[in-house]
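Board notes (copied after class):
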Amino acid sequence: MNIRTFLLILVFCTLGKRLSAQSNFGFEQGLSGWQTKGKVTLDREHAYQGIACAGIEWGSLTTLLPVIPFAVVEFNFHIRASQKGAQANIFLRFYDKKHRLLLSYVNPVADSVNYHQAGNYTEAPPYAAAMEIGIEKAPGSAGVFYADDFSIASSKIAHRPIVNIGQYMRPFWHSDTIVNETVLLYSVKGKPAVGNLMYLPSQVLSIKSYDLKRTYTSGKDYRQESKVITRIINSAMPFRADTSFLKSDLAWYNTQSQWVVVTYTHHDKWEGAAPLFKGRLLPKTMAKLKSGKPLRILAYGMSITRGMDVSGFDTIPPFMPTYVDLFARQLRKTYHDKDIKLYNAGLPGSTVDWGAKYAAQYINPLKPDLVILDFGMNDFWRLKPLEFKSYIDTIMQKVRRNNPDTEFLLLANMQFDPDYILDTDPYKEFYTSNLSGYSQLLQQMEKEGVVCLDMYQYSDELYRLKKAKDCLANPLHPNDFMARWYAQALSALLVPNF
């Protein structure tokens, strides 16, 4: 995984219960809480930190922890070998409630004589109830492996949204009231910070802080002229200056919660492309929706799928749910069907080739009726469009081999911030043409049983009206406002006249 992909990874492991100091992950209480096979001893001479570590001369050292399906798991040991040429593996095994093995990952450990981190990063498969994490010395291998300072991320606490979800799901393209449109007030060359709205307001109803706790006052905090909001000097409103954004190889930034949110009425008409109903291409899904029969939806993808940087996922106000959650909620509301189940199998940092390799393990056990495939933002660095398409084809083939009635919704992702990759980067055209090429090929794959949502096009139109930074928490992830575009556009595909 290259450094650019690594930037997308978020440590987020949802366990069945909180981990505690009693877990003895630093071996300070001996080997208590760990299972051993072979010759595994407590070593007080080679600890990474503290007073003790585990020494594995032969056999294995393991711990068993609870986990829930689709929990994102990342763990690490600090490990060193007593000599070059020693061989060992770190493994991660997932089991169901009856302790039947579901999926196993095995990674070799480097034979470095200096301490280094070694571990794994993935997600739990369907029906997972426990995970076994451990180190196993290769039979007959020379030397000793020392392990210390095991770490694993702990769970986050979910919060109820403090926004009106019904209002948030009013389609932007034909609503006369826009609720909480995000604007990053932006100062260029020391001038007053400004930001644009999508539409010409008839009346600005409110401008608030992103967490909705503070309301700003016209004439004191801001001026509104046409579509432009201008921050008044000494206002309490947050803003960013152009000098605060680095112009290095990759212009990375984090604007989480630095927007203001504007609610206003307008009389303008949306002049761009609008999502269209495509239910005719998904007859099996539509039949279940119309009849109120159980419907299983599985979202399989990456960090955007999972909801990274949406406020509910990041557990910050206003705690808006992820785009796939909003989509499922809208279907339940429209079709009066409470038996619509959503499974989010998005793995932050994942690539489409990983998705193709493990599609059968993560998708097939649930026998989904509709699968949302959402890859691409970690792939444009290296995969040309035809390569990307071949992996999408592989995923669909693996799923339909076991579940021939499954239908698919292919998501062509939004564009990254145009400022992210400098014009001087010799590979910029390669990256941008890959992402646009994914959009074109996914649209061409539409047929009965397969539809495409082209967020690439909608983001392009939105960036013409507003800055990309109004809509993004960082160059590659949508904020709440852009995530609402995802959710509303998905809903329009399956809800007539949405």
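Comment from the instructor: The CA atoms of residues 471 and 482 lie 5 Å apart. The longest helix spans residues 385-402.
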